[in-house]
Amino acid sequence: MSGARRPRVAMVVQRAGREVNGGAEALCRDVALALRSVWDVTIVTTTAIDYGTWAPDYPAGPGDIEGLPVLRFDVDEPRSPRHFDTLSARLLAKIGTAPLAEQEAWMRAQGPYSTRLLRYLEDHGDSYDLVIFYTYLYATTYFGMPLVRDRAVLVPFAHDEWPIHLSMWNERFAAAREVVLSTSEERDFLEARFGRPFAGPVIGIGVDLPEDADGSRFRQRCGVANPFAIYVGRIEAAKGCEQLLQDFAQHKRRVADDLILVMLGRAQMALPTLPYLRPLGFVDEQTKFDGLAASEFLIMPSALESLSISLLEAWSVSRPVLVNAASDVLVGQSRRANAGLWYGDAAELSAGIDLLRGPAGRELGANGRRFVAERYAWPRIIEAYQHLYERFAVPVSSPA
């Protein structure tokens, strides 16, 4: 390959855009934006924002995210949550014995299934040196990888949820030119699940240390006067939010303090009206960092994570974290950073709140900022992806 030609790389993800609220989608977007300094990157995705229905929110065709090229394709049909839940329950009941055809029917229903996107990969995939698929769980990855088999790299965002135990994934994980990991805990899980080594690099994401995060601006803009814990992410039961509300309610019954819970993100579940709960919906990046800076600490109640970007963002503004002890990934991140505590029930959450509101919280937050500066600087992430390219890139055939 000519040293003068910039590498051409496609990144395939189920949704993409500043309005999209999701960890894997944010990682793909931010990595793509960072790598455009050294690669010609195109994001290949669907027109959807809502992962529950895959309804078309963006126009199909070429677009951009802050000048980064994006190709969006319509999904063949929206997802029916009721039909999908029925298929999921049926498949879960025979997870070790279901035939491949039934598993693939479930994957089509899971979506987003886009004939046009898949046809683009089939017709133009060989015009890219690498095609990187973000998150294993969706149809864009499962049906897209075989079309570019010789240049497919997988960033799975895997954790111990029931779909990863379907046998259909055995071939996909084996066929990837490389599997890029987000944490060492993800590597441990995949090696246990598939019974073989995963020697791919642990890369993760870069985090800029914000110098202009302003807690006072957040309080004024959002009308929040009380000290508060903050949650950032999709608000749904699968992320532990329902249990968090129960645990936080127990804390408030135990302690008559002035702490409230602020939640940033789109709500996929009904939220009660409570004097100590402030759901503010999806907010822009500046407001998110201002909110983190204004908070006492971040709470992350999910038991199923492969990398928590929210933890890194909280640490970037020197805020400690309180995480679900059931998540090996979250506990591992917090241990390595020495920047958080973990809880297993409501009593431990309450004790963690008490500790993080004191001097220990300030010390842990400072540790987190140092950790992010050392481990998650963008130059390090870019270098790791460049090494990946040097090892696995396949010469292109012709421009797309």
Automatic annotation (TrEMBL):
Cross-referenced SUPFAM superfamilies: UDP-Glycosyltransferase/glycogen phosphorylase
Spans traversing the lipid bilayer: none
One annotated GO molecular function: glycosyltransferase activity
Documented EC number(s): 2.4.1.301
Keywords: Glycosyltransferase, Transferase
Gene3D superfamilies (UniProt xref): Glycogen Phosphorylase B
Matches recorded under PANTHER family: GLYCOSYLTRANSFERASE
Protein name: Alpha-D-kanosaminyltransferase
Species of origin: uncultured organism
Lineage of origin: unclassified sequences, environmental samples
